[in-house]
Design brief:
The chain has two domains: 164 residues, Alpha-Beta Horseshoe (Leucine-rich repeat, LRR (right-handed beta-alpha superhelix)); 287 residues, Transferase(Phosphotransferase), domain 1, CATH 1.10.510.10. The longest helix has 29 residues. Helix 3 links the parallel strand 4 and strand 5. It is an alpha+beta fold. The chain contains 16 helices and 13 strands. Helix 13 packs antiparallel against helix 15 and helix 15 packs antiparallel against helix 16. It comes from Coffea canephora.
Length: 558
């Protein structure tokens, strides 16, 4: 995709999916990369630090070369890592590194890498170029493991310390005996048995050299298109089987098929699955079992596509839930455009929001790029409360689906900066490992359950962020925002909790602070319902509007 065609994708940075705990427990690509770097660079020469905001290794935010390749709409894995001449002094964690699916080039020359080349290097099936030269590697080469790298064309292990540990190499590199030993040395030189042993060593080394030469010659004979074939196979594995004359349906469950897109929009806005798969796309975030893509169709329509995998849910149950969510319409909830469901993956399609998320706004505010005035903060607070209240008042059949993951990255902002709650209805499918799911968020309630009370707690944390200007997941010192605010209130330093933008509106700020502190109560039973929260915030909004109106009338009368 050309540079000029994707500036609109920057706003998607805030629409990061939550790191969910689905079955399987695989690490995301960014986590694999970070774990590998941590082993390779224990002295943090590269200054690469883990952050929840990191979405993928190929973000060009570090002074290293990490390249990715667009495989299809649903894949942009790492293909190349170059870290030469950087004084790295760790070990080569191939077990972690080789979990990157189509890694083709590894260049770590001119470093101080220690240890051995592990047998797990055999898992780098796509590796074509491996350069570990000029380092401090020891031990013996894993010949069996290397022989399994069928795509390897270039391999450089020169100028390491293998001679210090390998018996044969030691013999080859042995210095001549000191001539001062005189006759004893001559005697040893004339010993036929010694000559025989020397010739055997030379012969063994010669045979080994010839075998290695044949091995690498055959490797070089592998066609250059091999990596392309691997990429194509990966892309095909991610694409659903084609079916002729696929008809797009909206809500008739009996007509749904696994290869279809099910839409909740007007017919003239719909598109086919093949068109979606061929669209220009950019991976914006990747987690344990979910990924987020920005997509531009050929007609320039833009969408956010979320890919979920390894969900332990039946096709029928997932479809039933999605149809229910697709029919939910509210001005403060991001509508589901459509979905696709198959055994391997689920696709959820939303309209692209140019203003990004509340997390984007928080980031821009911290960096001084955008203002966050009181009026906007209040509008965001009441908008989220209205959306949540609708979720819990809406079901006619009595079945309530809690949100379960309320946080700034899941609050989008429309063109008028009205908040839109996204990710609704997905958490119920992603909590098979509850500890991992709930511990991944600073907004999760202490009881770690999917309930209205838990959603109220999460909303309370966001409300505290709007009031304090401190953002839970952006604090380097690991600040627990609810505890920090409660401590300030106990010490009667309540006025100090407010952000500078709130100073002129402290009267209303105190009212919202009382509401937020009730929301983040430790015990679920001590928290108000979302309808009670909405009522209190509405009182603040009404009071401010009344004062603003009276002030305007006073000015006009003068």
């Amino acid at each position: 995709m050309q540079r000029g065609s994707i500036p609109w994708l920057a706003a998607l940075a805030g629409l990061a999916l939550f790191v969910s705990g689905c079955n399987g427990g695989e690490l995301s690509e960014i986590e694999l990369f970070f774990n590998f770097i941590r082993a390779l660079d224990p002295k943090t020469v590269l200054r690469i630090e883990w952050s929840r905001s990191l979405r993928q290794p190929c973000s060009n935010q570090w002074n290293v070369v990490v390249r990715c390749k667009m495989v299809s709409l649903f894949g942009r894995p790492v293909t190349e890592i170059r870290l030469q001449n950087l004084n790295l002094s760790g070990i080569l964690d191939a077990e972690t590194l080789c979990k990157l699916p189509i890694l083709c080039v590894l260049i770590f020359a001119k470093n101080r890498i220690r240890g051995t080349v592990p047998d797990s290097i055999a898992d780098c099936k796509s590796l074509m170029h491996l350069d570990l030269s000029n380092s401090l590697l020891t031990g013996s080469l894993p010949a069996v493991a290397l022989s399994k790298l069928k795509n390897l064309k270039r391999f450089d292990i020169s100028d390491n310390h293998y001679g210090s540990t390998d018996p044969q190499l030691n013999r080859e590199a042995r210095p001549p005996e000191d001539v001062s030993h005189g006759k004893q040395s001559s005697k040893n030189d004339d010993n036929p048995r010694k000559h025989w042993q020397s010739w055997m060593v030379v012969l063994a080394m010669g045979v080994t050299f010839v075998l290695l030469l044949i091995f690498f010659t055959k490797l070089k004979a592998v066609q250059a298109a091999k990596d392309t074939e691997i990429t194509r196979e990966l892309a095909l594995s991610l694409s659903p089987p084609k079916s002729p004359h696929v008809e797009i349906v909206v809500e008739e469950k009996a007509e749904e098929r696994h290869s279809e897109l099910v839409f909740f929009i007007e017919k003239h806005e719909r598109f086919g699955l093949e068109e979606l798969l061929e669209a220009s796309a950019d991976l914006r975030w990747q987690g344990h079992c979910s990924s987020l893509y920005g997509v531009r169709l050929k007609n320039n329509a833009t969408f956010a596509v979320k890919r979920l995998k390894k969900l332990q849910v039946s096709f029928e149950e997932f479809g039933q839930t999605m149809r229910k969510i697709g029919n939910l319409k509210h001005q403060n909830i991001l509508s589901l455009v459509g979905y696709n469901s198959s055994k391997e993956k689920k696709l959820l399609i939303y309209r692209f929001q140019n203003n990004g998320s509340l997390l984007t706004l928080f980031n821009d505010y911290i960096e001084g790029k955008r203002n966050l005035p009181w009026k906007l903060r209040l509008s965001i607070a009441i908008g989220i409360a209205r959306g949540l209240n609708f979720i819990y008042q809406w079901p006619e059949d009595g079945e309530i689906i809690p949100h379960g993951n309320i946080k700034p990255s899941n609050i989008m902002l429309d063109e008028k900066e009205e908040p839109l709650i996204s990710e609704y209805g997905i958490a119920k499918f992603l909590v098979s490992n509850k500890a991992r799911f709930f511990n991944s968020s600073s907004y999760a309630a202490p009881e770690k359950r999917l309930t209205e009370q838990a959603d109220v707690y999460s909303f309370g944390v966001i409300l505290l962020e709007l009031l304090t200007g401190k953002f839970a997941e952006m604090q380097k010192n690991g600040l627990d925002l609810p505890k920090w605010v409660k401590a300030k209130v106990r010490e009667e330093w309540t006025g100090e909790v407010f952000d500078k933008e709130i100073e002129k509106f402290e009267m209303y700020g105190f009212s919202l602070l009382n509401i937020s502190l009730k929301c983040v109560s430790e015990l679920p039973g001590d928290r108000p319902s979302i309808s009670e929260v909405l009522e209190k915030i509405q009182e603040v909004v009404t009071a401010q509007e009344d004062i603003s109106s009276s002030s305007t009338n006073s000015v006009e009368s003068i």
